[in-house]
């Protein structure tokens, strides 16, 4: 047994490996053919935000897989990544990925490091709090910014949109792809886009592109939006 197996696989229950009490590894598969793959996620069901896979993350990861031609060789930043399923899929597809989450939550960032190793992926982990202008954000220059279920607390909307707008301005032609529960109120998101000079270029109901086997395991009114600068810098 390798060190990794000793660290992770203690028991198996309903197809999920358990690494210690309240912590489990879930497997997420993409594609049916030989080009498909599985990503393993370490979840802690005792923790709150950021330590388990939210439905929006399942939807965004599936979208990344379906849009895989866009992800080869591009720079990707995932904001509020938590368990990071979309970013890890992008890394598997050949993107240069930086996984980020609130810099005040070291347990979430440490979990990202463990998942990077578990999946043998080469991505960067960075503490990035929305609305904070720490030095590393200036060098990110992503072509694609990902965010799953980051639009859930209206008090954070301005900070999140400030960071998204900065990242889009730093990289001409870039796009923010986000999945969110419509409980947050689409009108408020539209208002924020106008306020931050952004526009929505694509809006999908997540259930319109999810395979039925995945759609049946998630609930809620999940939408996916692609957002760019309204007046892009060329
Ligand atoms: C609802 S969870 C979604 C996690 C993951 N994207 C998913 O869908 O499974 C929201 C995430 O945003 C992060 N977050 C919340 N406020 C933040 C902030 N001000 N700056 C950066 N990240 C933040 C949380 O730590 C958490 O990981």
TrEMBL record:
Q: Name one GO biological process term.
A: methylation
The Gene Ontology CC terms held by the record are: cytoplasm; nucleus
Residue ranges of coiled coil:
none
Region: Disordered, residue numbers: 1-25
Q: Where is the composition biased (Acidic residues)?
A: 1-16
Q: Which keywords belong to this entry?
A: Methyltransferase, S-adenosyl-L-methionine, Transferase
Q: Which SUPFAM superfamilies match?
A: S-adenosyl-L-methionine-dependent methyltransferases (SSF53335)
Pfam families registered for this protein in UniProt: Methyltransf_16
Q: Name one GO molecular function term.
A: methyltransferase activity
What family is this protein classified in? Belongs to the methyltransferase superfamily. METTL23 family.
Write down what this protein is called: Methyltransferase-like protein 23
């Amino acid at each position: 047994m390798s060190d990794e197996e000793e660290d992770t696989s203690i028991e198996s229950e309903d197809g999920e490996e358990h690494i210690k009490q309240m912590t489990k590894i879930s497997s997420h598969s993409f594609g049916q053919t030989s080009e498909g793959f599985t990503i393993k996620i370490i979840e802690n069901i005792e923790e709150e935000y950021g330590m388990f896979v939210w439905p929006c993350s399942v939807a965004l990861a599936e979208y990344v897989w379906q849009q895989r031609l866009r992800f080869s060789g591009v720079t990707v930043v995932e904001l509020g990544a938590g368990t990071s399923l979309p970013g890890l899929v992008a890394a598997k597809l050949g993107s240069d990925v930086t996984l980020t989450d609130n810099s005040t939550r070291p347990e979430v960032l440490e979990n990202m490091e463990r998942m990077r190793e578990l999946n043998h992926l080469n991505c960067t982990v960075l503490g990035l709090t929305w609305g904070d202008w720490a030095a590393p954000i200036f060098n990110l220059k992503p072509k694609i910014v990902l965010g799953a279920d980051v639009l859930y607390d209206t008090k954070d909307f301005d900070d999140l949109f400030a960071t998204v707008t900065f990242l889009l301005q730093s990289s001409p032609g870039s796009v923010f792809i986000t999945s969110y529960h419509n409980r947050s109120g689409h009108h408020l998101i539209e208002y924020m886009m106008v306020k931050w000079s952004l526009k929505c270029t694509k809006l999908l109901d997540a259930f319109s592109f999810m395979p039925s086997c995945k759609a049946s395991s998630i609930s809620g009114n999940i939408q996916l939006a692609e957002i760019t600068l309204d007046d892009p810098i060329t």
